[in-house]
Amino acid sequence: MNYTLLNDFSQIDSNEWNTLLKESIQDTPFLRYEYQKTWWEHKGGGEWKDARLLLATARENGQLIGVAPLFIAEYENEPAILLNGSIEISDYLDVIVKKDDHARFISGLLDFLLTIDGWKKLDWYNVPDDSPTLLALKEEAAKRGWTHHEEAYRPTPRIALNGSFEDYLSRIDKKQRHEIRRKMRRAAESELNVKFVLVGQTANIEKDLDDFFNLMIQDPNKAAFLHPAMRAQMTSILHEAYKNHYLWLGFLEIDGVRTAASLNFDYENKLWGYNSGVSRSHMDLSPGWVLLSHTIQWCCENGRYEFDFMRGDEEYKYRFGGVNRFVMRVRAVK
Length: 334
Fold this sequence. Notes:
Elements: E1 2-6, H1 14-22, H2 33-46, E2 52-60, E3 63-75, E4 78-83, E5 96-97, H3 99-113, E6 121-128, H4 132-144, E7 147-155, E8 158-160, H5 165-171, H6 174-189, E9 195-198, H7 205-216, H8 220-225, H9 228-243, E10 247-254, E11 257-267, E12 270-278, H10 287-301, E13 306-308, H11 315-319, E14 326-333
Parallel strand pairs: 4-6, 12-13
Antiparallel strand pairs: 1-2, 2-3, 3-4, 3-5, 6-14, 7-14, 8-13, 9-10, 10-11, 11-12
Helix pairs in contact: 2-9, 3-4, 6-10
């Protein structure tokens, strides 16, 4: 493999990148070209101010074999190489390479990175627990005499979906099943005309995103997170998802007012639960729970095989039937 270090996303074709991703060890929205490029332009909403891009590619006979979207930054008092997208808003990260090429790509990549000065360690966050990258890094670290450490970083609960909404309900806790049915029924029977509304591709996306953010910041913790630089970052990412037809945005309207929002990525036949927001009004109708129930029902009715809550161990995820997987943090110190 011939490795090349690129210093700008314009130096690689977006179609070539996304085509390889379709056959890669991981195919997630966070590894698509437009997401990675947009994240780098905003440096994670200001999370990394002095980072330097390391966009490494490998080719054989002119064909793209692998991409390692990386950057160097000072982290925990040492210069480190991290995965582009680290750490806060990109739930799943990895290298982009086919399974059959993966081991030799990782080995060659580490040799290539050793020709670059200015770093002491690899510190890779949000690598899925089933990624072959974890074992490859462990083996390469042992071979090179590097210190290696791996740990579960965050749980990523998921709901397996196969069949109807009633099939889904039959598999969860009896008490929770009763609660979902009761709350959906109460909302449906309300005189306030409760409606589940899914944003279409021809919608006024600017207004829809503003409505979503206004609901998101009803939570004080989310309001603090959504500072101006982060809001600009997320807005750009969501515009790219919209343009590429995998943005999924649903609202629960109560008495004609958008009262809850569910923002997801509809990608590779599953729904990836990115964020949500709920107004403090009409809490007696449980708008957040009702909207999540409608979202899961939509998945069942439209053949999505999984709802992925992504990172976080909030209690409601498990009450709706989420089963833990994890993203890992792996470090290799020279």
